[in-house]
Amino acid sequence: MQTLLDSLSPHPAVVMNPWFEPLAYNAPFRFMIDDLEALPPADRNCAYLHFTHPDWIAAHSDHEQECAAVVAKLRAYHGESVTDPAWAPLLARLREESPLFVRLWEQADVSTEPGRVKRIRSRHVGSLSVRAITLLLEENPRTRVVVYQPADRTTQERLEELAHRIARGTIDGPARVRHLRAAT
């Protein structure tokens, strides 16, 4: 799977389970917002990051709309596996740490809304407009591959620049240069 994800570069790509836990990803996904691996493993849940992490919150100019889409997807996936014990700790943590999550969860919206353009501010290359394309794995339909396709030429160029910086071994952050660890 890692070879497939890496071959999709410069497009960010991730394998996620229904709880928004990234199981595998390529380097452009790792650095699309900032460095995912700089976070403790327990905090790398993408739903959790949308609601609690300052860099992820700031990365979405339409933050509340993005969070509403995340909750609607969580509800859709929750409906498919409501008895799975993995839901309880995630939902409890989100309820405890995010009043916005509580409000949106109580609205009971359910959706997978394919093709929506997401606007993301990358710490490394600036504004990106991407469409998240979701593919289900035949071997495990609850696991999905999400590929972020550029919605415009500028985003394509910026994703290529991100991949180029990764290949060079440095990422230019706002106040420092980071030397990369090997992507997992």
UniProtKB/TrEMBL annotation:
InterPro entries, per the entry: MLTR_LBD
Annotated MmyB-like transcription regulator ligand binding domain residues: 1-162
GO molecular function: DNA binding
DNA-binding listed as a keyword: yes
Keyword DNA-binding found: yes
Keywords: DNA-binding
Source superkingdom: Bacteria
Name by which UniProt lists this protein: DNA-binding protein
Organismal lineage: Bacteria, Bacillati, Actinomycetota, Actinomycetes, Kitasatosporales
